[in-house]
Amino acid sequence: MAHYPGVLAGTDEPSAIRPHTDYELLTILLQDDIPSLELLSNTGQWIQAKPIPGTFVVNIGDSMSMLTNGLFVSTMHRVVNSSKRNRYSVPFFLGANQYAELRALDKFVTNGNPAKFQPVISGDYIRRSLQAVYSKPNVEIVRETIEVRE
């Protein structure tokens, strides 16, 4: 369960998680009624994902992007709780076996669409991604750990 404290009296500083993509295949998210999840649109605008009672938010993760050679794109998102109420969400991360190789599946690679990502072991990718985030707590990390082929 993730907890995002409400804005404290006398301050206007929201609690937040910087923009990021999820590293696994999919994230299934049950959120409460406080609108705080924002998704980055193709035009570079942040769009609020308004909570809908009785529904889940499903985000595509980096691992799914790798397997589909970029056909499915990981969802860049952030959380900004500017409410005075505490926000809670329950994320479920579905990932590959930690020893599995993440590489574009053959059906997504053609002469006109070569592999876009270097193959990587799932557990290594997750560890590297988490280390990048936690070793630079004041730096915005935006998908810098995915290796793209030139």
From TrEMBL:
Fe2OG dioxygenase domain sequence ranges: 1-96
Keyword Nucleotide-binding: no
UniProt keyword list: Iron, Metal-binding
UniProt superkingdom: Eukaryota
Molecular function in Gene Ontology: metal ion binding
Record bears the keyword Secreted: no
Alphabetized Gene3D superfamilies for the sequence: B-lactam Antibiotic, Isopenicillin N Synthase, Chain
Protein's recorded name: Fe2OG dioxygenase domain-containing protein
